[in-house]
Design a protein that fits this description.
By secondary structure, the chain is an all-alpha fold. It contains 7 helices and no strands. The protein has 2 domains: 75 residues, DnaJ domain (Helix Hairpins), CATH 1.10.287; 35 residues, no CATH class. The radius of gyration is 18 Å and the shape is elongated. One of its GO terms (cellular component) is nucleus. This is J domain-containing protein.
Length: 118
């Protein structure tokens, strides 16, 4: 399907936490750009169009996307991970969906400064 180090998200050019509307817009833009009718006889364009279709089919379906995302959890930074899987984390922890207080996590810039200072 896609190159070895690419993800379905990179095929569509969206982030790992992109909402469905952003995924849909990226798909439509890329599908128009790489449609085989615009590139008659170009096998590269045909393969690219197929990659775009496959990525969209997985990422637009919430269940398939969740399954796919679990395989990519190592690519998310802490804030993105918590934002994406908040419901799952709170449910698995037995906590109410409306936590009493939210702990502030340091930004990636702040973490980088801490790592460089150490």
């Amino acid at each position: 399907m896609a190159r070895e180090n690419s993800t379905l998200y990179s095929v569509l050019g969206v982030s790992l936490v992109a909402p469905a509307c952003e995924i849909r817009a990226a798909y439509r833009r890329l599908a128009r750009q790489w449609h085989p009718d615009r590139h008659r006889g170009d096998d590269l364009a045909k393969r690219r169009f197929q990659q775009i279709q496959e990525a969209y089919e997985v990422l637009i379906d919430s269940r398939r996307r969740e399954t796919y995302d679990l395989k990519l959890v190592h690519l998310l930074d802490v804030e993105d991970y918590l934002a994406r899987f908040k419901e799952l984390i709170l449910t698995a922890s037995g906590l109410d969906m409306q936590p009493a207080r939210t702990q502030h996590l340091p930004s990636s810039d702040h973490r980088q400064l801490l790592l460089t200072a150490a």
